[in-house]
Amino acid sequence: EYNNSSVFSLSPIQKNKMEFFIDTYLNNKKSFDKRFYDKIFYNSLGIPFYIINILHVLFQYKWLYKKNDLYELDLEAFLKIDLNKNILKELDFRFKDYSEDEQKVLLQASVIGMEFSLTDLGNLFFQSEGYKDDVMIRSVLTNACKKQFLESSSHKSYRFLHSKIREYLYSKIKKNIKS
């Protein structure tokens, strides 16, 4: 029903480009109320992964729907919903795609902070797991970049794409592991 295209950019969308991005993604011929774009920007910080997930939630609950070849929006219902809960559900769903070892890598990266080096992550993984597997760690990080969990800031340095992703992962760690 909506444009099922892929988003290749990991860079956040600027606020002044939000309307264009959403309308292009939907292949929509009319614009919505400014509050719609503002709320999506505020809750996604312009990250395409979150923007698209928000749109999927809106379709799922039929707050965004197609009528006479144009998209319509139940703005009042949309303005009342808590988008953070839906984003956390989506992160939970996407995180389950990773194997147990891959999940450990991402969880340990969240302990280091928003930004981390491949070396630091490898050392932490070795300390906690008792073995080092740089190939597997690199593969997990590459996959996490493709899935818009992370971005590569240099050849051996990574950063979580959004603080909500890091917070989500960090919250998944048992309290005794954190200390």
Question: How far do the termini sit from each other?
Answer: 47 Å
Q: Which residues form runs of ≥5 with pLDDT under 50?
A: 1-8
β-strand percent reads 5-15%
Q: Can you tell me the overall shape?
A: elongated
Number of helices: 10
Helix content: 55-70%
> What is the spatial order of strands in the main beta sheet?
3-5-4
Please identify the structural class as seen in this structure. Answer: mainly alpha
Number of DSSP E strands: 5
What can be said about the biggest beta sheet? 3 strands, antiparallel
Structure description:
The protein has 179 residues and is mainly alpha-helical. It is built from ten helices and five strands. The strands form two sheets. A three-stranded antiparallel beta sheet has the order 3-5-4. A two-stranded antiparallel sheet has the order 1-2. The relative contact order is 0.12. The model is unreliable at 1-8 (pLDDT under 50).
Produce the secondary structure layout:
Blueprint: H1 18-26, H2 34-44, H3 48-60, E1 64-67, E2 70-73, H4 75-80, H5 83-95, H6 100-112, E3 115-117, H7 118-129, H8 134-146, E4 150-154, E5 157-160, H9 163-171, H10 175-178
Antiparallel strand pairs: 1-2, 3-5, 4-5
Helix pairs in contact: 2-3, 3-5, 6-7, 6-9
